[in-house]
Amino acid sequence: MNLAIINFGSGNLHSVHKAFENVNSELSNPYNIVVTNDPREIQSADKIVLPGVGAFGDCKNAIYNIEGLHASLEVSVLKNKVPFMGICVGMQLLADLSYEFGTHSGFGWIPGEVRRIASSQKYKIPHMGWNELRFSDHKLFDGCEQGSDFYFVHSFYFQNQKSEHSIATTKYPDQITAAVCKENICGTQFHPEKSHKNGKRIIHNFLKWRP
Amino acid sequence: MLKKRIIPCLDVDNGRVVKGVNFIDLVDAGDPVEQAIIYNAEGADELCFLDITASSDNRDTLLEVVKKTAENCFIPLTVGGGVRSLDDISRLLHYGADKVSINTAAVDNIDLVAEAANKYGSSTIVIAVDAKQTAENQWKVFTHGGRKETDIDVVAYCNEVAKLGAGEILLTSMDRDGTKSGFDNKLLKAVTSKVNIPVIASGGVGNLNHLLDGILEGEASALLAASIFHFGEYSIGEVKRYLADNNIPVRI
Lengths: 211, 252
Hints:
heterodimer, A: alpha/beta, Rossmann fold, eight-stranded mixed sheet, four-stranded mixed sheet, 26% helix, B: alpha/beta, TIM Barrel, eight-stranded parallel β-barrel, 11 strands
């Protein structure tokens, strides 16, 4: 079984890779983890992870500039229904549209838009640090406690068009989507790779996930 | 609710911790990786390495420290000290840093802030500001580890780097650093009341009450401390329990 972590030059690639390696090594049937941007390797993967930090437009362009990368993701995720996890901007890219530094179209895999969090003296932007998670009944949160803390760092959030696609929320100051899921596609706004034990639990659950 | 962050900082010289403490479980008190692992287990919200290696030839030793820490600690890691260019940032991120702090290089070349934030994302770029009071309610930016005075106003500078895309400010009071007399809360408040990005308070912590004041009076988003943790005066857990008892939201 192969798990592909998509390498398009994202800053958190190394952290994501190390955290997945760490959790994976504790499984009785570990995955073979590959860090890749090779369309062939992506199409033969049994699970796919898309990390992402930075601006939406930059991440999107970096992905589209690698020949065959986006197309191979669409084949695997949309056609072959391979379980997929996007992290932070890797999750926001699933939206139809983002308003970060202009207007950019996203993958359009989960309907909704990416909008800026309103800042104030009390609510600084980026929303940076540990915040509480409220989640619905989903395999991704097996063994997690309601209200436990996860590490966030973002200035924009995913406003889902359909509330059923939002499977977890946090508050800053309003309720914002912290995780999404639609069929075989899931994503987290928080960083599981930086969320200590709670984050490792999410990674474990994704590795075990059979949507 | 968003939690106030407690960040232990390790000064690293030639890959070894300066001012290290002999934790009971530590095999090698000078090994930053071992100390980082202990802070991680104790509940630190983030870790910070400050590279104080004088010679740039020896800076590569830090990269190995960063790499090993990132393999063992799954919390955010900020690395600073001697960061001069986009290449320096790129290298640290590649080895596993989550955020990179820039100090003197940002003062020398303010364009670096925007370039770094655009390339790596605001969340990755911490601007470290060394501040010294020069008059009543006035602080100036100092560079080169606090040795060189500039004519730059701290509040104006913090606002500028925030506008250019910095994700966070690490604000150190040079007047208080090492004195154990508490944060300069007037300085903190002057910045936190004017700047809309998170501010990490640094310099002067000597006891638990100082940490509480940094949040209540300075309104900092996060608290950085070195010696109170290194010398084993307080554990991360003790700090968090004290803050929680005083109704400060912390991750326990």
